[in-house]
Amino acid sequence: MPDATICAVATPPGRGGIGVVRLSGPDTGSLTEAVAGPLPAPRRASMRRFAGDDGSAIDEGLVLWFPGPHSFTGEDVAELHGHGGPVVMDRLLQRLLGLGARLADPGEFSQRAYVNGRMDLTRAEAIADLIEAGSESAARAAVRSLQGEFADTINGLVQRLTDQRVHLEAGIDFADEPLEGLALDNVTRSIEAIAAEVAATREAASRGQQLREGLSVVIAGRPNAGKSSLLNALAGRDAAIVTALAGTTRDVLESYLHLDGLPLRVLDTAGLREGGDVVEQEGVRRARQAMAAADRILMVVDDAAGDDAAVAPADWPRDTPVTVVYNKIDCSGRAPGQSAAGVAVSALTGAGMEALRDHLRSRLGADDTEAVFIARRRHLQALDAAAAHIDTALEAARAGAGEELVAESLGAAQASLGEITGAVTTEDLLGRIFSTFCIGK
User: Fold this and answer.
1) Which of 30, 146, 204, 342 would staple 324 via disulfide (CB 3.0–4.6 Å)?
2) In this structure, is the dihedral angle defined by the CA atoms of residues 395, 396, 401 and 403, taken in order, positive or negative?
């Protein structure tokens, strides 16, 4: 980490009651004194006049002083709280830059906190995820990660792997003097328990990743089944054009909504049928592509038209869960609500729509978000790699391949888990992580 003192506006662009300029680095104290006079007592707000290079007043506001290492970044940190106008903030920033500070890169304050040991990568990423949270559930999950629950779980797994490696290494070193408890069968049972915990952690992280990025729900079915009407009913607005003309929807139309705090990306697709012009055929191809990538498909059936209007299960993607939605029950007379066959609704009148929302809440896990960690794709990839190495260790142990091979695979699993918290990392990884942060963070 360079020795430069960095500064940035830490509040959003635009006008507001308060704006904050943040500094961090070795010259923070002297730069703050040049602008706002003598430093206040640590962590005590003090009212000051902010002076320009000619001594004229830029603004009046509060100064906060956090001497390192007891600060967010582990370095000397100061904050200037002024009136939140863009001109005032820019003048303060330019004054500090003129005194020798450097404008912070995106996420550089958080990166310095990580480099200086003030937080691990999961906590650093949780800061950005908390800021960007699009729902209350995502915010709660981000707070849990920020408080260290995710890191504690990963560190616990690493410690258990370390314990097993110690047993294996002891077995190798004292091969001629067998020690109690070091039999490979005992180690195998312990590794099996670790594998189960890694799988549970992966499931919790996967749910957190879905909270962060949202789940994909595709609305599919024959032309004129009422797919666009269903999208409008779910969204509570006219998100899609609805006409009686078959083939009105020719491309994939996206709409974003929240289901009890669970972010959803709902895609309305072209009607599934053979034939049509080249544009409609392309729409059908994109519809099938979206279905294959979805977390769940709502297969809409025109209930008033009978079984001939349904889409055969052979057309459904093999690995994607499907909910059959019987639409237009205001014309067919079917009772609204859930059944073993699917959910009966009228997108026109709203009958059965709450039952459909309840069904989606249950199937997509909106009612069970308290035990998840906010997570990113890199976390899932690292957990998958760790699970694969642990499986390799188990195969070697069960085959009696020797303690050395088992220990080597467990070491690789440790390294994969270490990538999550930053115990094992690269400069390229850090660059990719912190480049997505706000400049003031």
Assistant:
1) 342
2) negative
For the chain, the maximum distance between any two Cα atoms, rounded to a whole number of angstroms, is 83
Closest by Cα among 67, 70, 2 to 39: 67
Per-residue pLDDT of the chain (441 residues; tens, 9 = 90+): 457 999 999 998 888 889 999 999 999 999 999 999 999 999 999 999 999 989 899 999 999 999 999 999 999 999 999 998 899 999 999 999 999 999 999 989 999 998 898 988 888 888 888 887 766 777 778 888 888 888 899 999 999 998 888 878 776 655 555 544 446 677 888 899 999 999 999 988 887 777 777 788 888 888 888 888 888 888 776 654 444 444 444 567 787 877 766 778 888 887 776 666 677 677 777 888 888 888 888 989 888 887 666 666 766 777 788 889 999 999 988 899 888 888 999 988 989 999 988 888 877 765 555 667 778 888 899 999 999 999 999 998 888 777 788 888 999 999 999 988 887 666 666 676 677 777 777
Q: Residue 122: helix, strand or coil by DSSP?
A: helix
Say if strands 262-268 and 296-302 run parallel, antiparallel, or are unpaired.
unpaired
Cα torsion angle, 35, 37, 38, 43, sign: negative
C-alpha to C-alpha distance for 252 and 271, rounded to whole angstroms: 10
- The residue count of the chain comes to 441
Half-sphere exposure of 144 (CA within 13 A, CB side): 19
Residues 12-37: b if buried by 16+ CB within 10 A, e if exposed: eeeeeeebbbbbbbebbbebbebbbe
| Two tokens, residue 419 | 């990538």
**At 100, is the secondary structure helix, strand, or coil?**
coil
Preceding amide of 69 cis, omega within 30? yes
- Stated as kind and residue range, the H or E segment containing 319 is none
Whether the CB-CB separation of 266 and 235 falls below 8 Å is answered with: yes
Structure-token pair, residue 397? 């142990």
C-alpha span between 236 and 241 (Å, rounded): 14
Q: Report the 10 Å Cβ neighbour count for 357.
A: 16
Q: Is the pTM of this model over 0.90?
A: no
- Residue 187 burial (CB count, 10 A): 24
The conformation of residue 246, written as its DSSP 8-state character, comes to T
Contacts of 160 (CB under 8 A, 6+ apart): 190, 194, 197
